[in-house]
Amino acid sequence: MARSMCWHCQSEVTGEYFCERCVKVQPVSKETDYFTCLGFPRRLTLDPKKLEAKFYELSRTFHPDFYQTKSTAEQTISLSNAAVLNTAYRTLRDPIQRAEYLLALETGSVKDIRTSPPADLFEEILELQDTLEEYRASDHGSDQGHRLRAVLQTEQEALERRKVEMESQLRQLFADWDKLQDTGEATSPAKAERNRILKQMRDLLSHRTYINNIVNDLAATIA
Amino acid sequence: MARIVGIDLGTTNSLVAYMKDGQPRIVPDRNGRTMVPSVVALADNGLIVGNSAKEHLTRNPERTVYSVKRFMGKGLADIQNELTYFPYQLTETGGVIRIRLGQKNYSPPQISAMILKELKLRAETYLGESITKAVITVPAYFNDSQRQATKDAGLIAGLEVLRIINEPTAAALAYGLQKNTQGTIAVYDFGGGTFDISILKLKDGIFEVLATNGDTHLGGDDLDRLLVDLFVAEIRDRHEIDNRHYPDHMQAVRLEGERAKIRLSDELKTEITIELPEDKGRFTRELTRDQLESLAISVIERTLTPCRMALKDAGLNPKDIDEVVLVGGSTRMPLVRQLVEALFGKPPHCHLNPDEVVALGAAVQADILSGGTTDMLLLDVTPLSLGIETMGGVMSSLIRRNTTIPASAKEMFTTYVDGQTGVDIHILQGERELVKDNRSLARFRLKVPPLPAGVPRIEVTFLIDANGILNVTATDMRTSQSQSIEVKPSYGLSDMEVEKMIEDSFKFAAEDIGARKLIEARLDAESLIKTTDKSLAEAGHLVAREEADAIRMALSQLSTAKDGTDFRAIRARMAELEQAAKHLNAVMLDDSLKRGLQGKKVSDVS
Fold it and tell me: How far is the alpha carbon of A86 from chain B, nearest alpha carbon, in Å?
């Protein structure tokens, strides 16, 4: 946590979450990112057990249950800290959300990861959308209904395989990112590598979300 | 810190518990009973609550309110298709159901407050101290309006509600404390009016709720109704009388159905007897467990879908659940246990008293809040997605269901027209796409400085606190000024109305206490008169005539006092009668002992 002034006694806060002088809880700064909040470096491969342990530890530190006997100001801080902590944990716990969050932190555009179809699948997906419409309009009990359903099922399986493939590519990129961060080089090849990883990651995440949405839609339609 | 009690405010019964020596305990009444029936009746002497009110269900059905929990946070339209089942008169004002009792209308939080007051009094009498703070439980699947209504009820009852906690998670706390379990548990909570399923991970004292689901309108009441419908149809066919025209008889039918249902958890068949109105005699039939189960299965099966949804949201399969814990009276039914076992593939844990475990858990949470228990922490979730209305009547989700609370989301708002001074915001809860299919929680108008379109930037923070209740704040990002927001609840009492009710409740408190003492004195007097009459009839000949006359005199004086309104006078006459009849009772005891010994050998007695 960044050095700041205690809201209560105005002395410089040296402790991590509490003022060492007056022992009051300190608000998590708005600038604190989720990695910092949970005490992890900006890496994409995190040990879920360690993450959970840290989340539990910090919950014991911030949860409003433990501030019931404290002042209103401390209760308010505990409430908002706990809310930030919960959001941080929810975001970092899921590898995809974690990567999207890191991307936003590194490239500065939060909501701009548009979902887009992978170029090579564009034709196929247009065709799939047509089949989907046709199936929705058809009598599900008829021969045509059965045939269309079988087509959609095959498509769903193919897309799911594609999704798994993308996720494995993503994991490779995550490892590349972590390795690059660990070396901490600031050379221009390192910068180029960094930008390559972030760009590829952005494209893959965008495509994966797109595929994921279609798979969910398919699953719901033929369920 | 003053003591905090834990309260289970149930559909059918309510309980209050406290912590002693690290263990939660239920507060009993004078007779050792732990449950207070959640029934409020308007008797001739005023409002009465609990066991004495329950007697009015058949005597005075139009003026006896039960299952009020089903109305919390709701409008009349929400319960339209079950209105015929309730013998009391229901109306609506300001989006809130009102219950007519005599000349006055009461909101559901006011009726609930009477039950809470009864529990408060019970705890105060038992613990010998004033109780002003409480943790109150609600079904996990209660929405924001229903939680707020519960909190309002606490306020009206003169209780500071330090926390609203979910019933299944409360049960998990009590269970975890007792068993010291680690792992993943499912709490299946099937009560009188509501059903909840919660899946929790228990690890090192942390109780993390992974997912919750349920139906706030599914419970034992629904099973009772199936029996009512069956009996009413049979009575009509066999005796050519429609019970539905006789509210008091409808209550008798309902209560007989409920009792039969309870008996059939232990027995395979039972006898139904219902006295009919208009001297039509009585209706009798045998009801078997099989017959009950074939009726009940459709209702009980409705609990399975929420279970599957909760598992899915937690990302788990039934086999991942280490232990299934049963809570709520309805889980005593063997069929419920069978279906639960079939779903999770393991026999459920049912060693805890399903009626008491929720109140016990509430007491544990109360102890955590007062700083007594420090090693346990409950991390609960919000059961329903929270969102706002956007263009085209679509709900845009801000906080997803099963998000750990406290949870917050921020949203930036701006204007579309030059000089626009307000933005209307409609808050919703639910899982559906369209606004109209979700629950409207509240509306408010965001104040915006008159500026060119798109220039204002108002950040609104939606914060769900640890009670699962929404708080909204707004900040003008240009000036960093925060603005207060007056939220108008769609299905709730306004702050002003709650304040008025609190005032009323204090104003009438003194009267209420007087009325209650009078009722109790009358009941006690009645029973004393009855027993003394009996003694006189059986043993009057064993005492002197003057003595018997003196007793009769004291009896008639007590009778007169009982019809008056001075409870002190009643108590005084009771004391006199007890004194006058003391010798008679002693003689009677002697006599019965003597007669009991007749014909017995000395060796049998010594």
Answer: 6
Catalytic annotation on B8?
yes
Work out the widest C-alpha separation in chain B, in whole angstroms: 108
Helix (H, G, I), strand (E, B) or coil at A91: helix
Percentage of chain B exceeding pLDDT 90: 54
Which residues make Cβ contacts (< 8 Å) with residue A28, sequence separation at least 6? A1, A17, A37, A80, A81, A84, A85
Out of A65, A87, A89, whose CB is closest to B368? A65
B475 shares a domain with B433: yes
Burial class (CB in 10 A: 0-12, 13-18, 19+), B32: exposed
Domain boundary among B493, B528, B563: B493
- Tell me the chain A residues in contact with residue B403 when contact means C-beta distances shorter than 8 Å: 86, 90
Residue B214: predicted pLDDT: 93
Whether B515 contacts chain A with CB within 8 A: no
- Domain end, chosen from B342, B358, B379, is at B379
Q: Is residue B602 part of a domain?
A: no
Of A73-77, B192-196, B561-565, the poorest mean pLDDT is in B561-565
Q: For residue A91, give the chain B residue with the closest CA.
A: B403
Cis omega (within 30 of 0) for bond into B108:
no
Render pLDDT for A76-102 as a digit per residue (tens, 0 to 9).
999 999 999 999 999 999 999 999 999
- Containing B4, the helix (H) or strand (E) segment is strand B4-9
B241 in the same domain as B373: no
User: Which pLDDT tens digit goes with each residue over B429-454?
Assistant: 998 888 888 999 989 888 888 999 88
Q: Could you tell me the two tokens for B148?
A: 């707020």
Q: Say whether both B484 and B358 belong to one domain.
A: no
User: Residue B505 is part of which domain span?
Assistant: 501-597
Domain A4-93 part of CATH 1.10.287.110: yes
Q: What is the DSSP code (8-state) at residue B267?
A: -
Give yes or no for A68 touching B (CB within 8 A): yes
Question: Least CA distance to A79: which residue of chain B?
Answer: B406
ipTM metric: 0.86
Residue-wise pLDDT tens digits, B144-169? 999 999 999 999 999 999 999 999 99
C-alpha separations of A47 from A40, A89, A144 in Å: 10, 13, 49
Chain B residues 222-281 within an 8 A CB cutoff of chain A: none
* Whole-number pLDDT of residue B605: 46
Number of domains, chain B: 4
pLDDT (0 to 100) of residue B302:
95
Alpha carbon distance B64, B260 (integer Å): 22
| Residue B311 and residue B331 share a domain | yes
**C-beta separation of B270 from B260 below 8 A:** yes
Element (H, E) at B453: none
Higher pLDDT, B178 or B294: B294
**Domain membership flag for residue B604:** no
Q: Residue B34 above 90 pLDDT?
A: yes
Q: What is the CATH number of the domain that holds B11?
A: 3.30.420.40
User: Is the Cβ of A84 closer than 8 Å to some Cβ of chain B?
Assistant: yes
pLDDT value at A9 more than 70:
yes
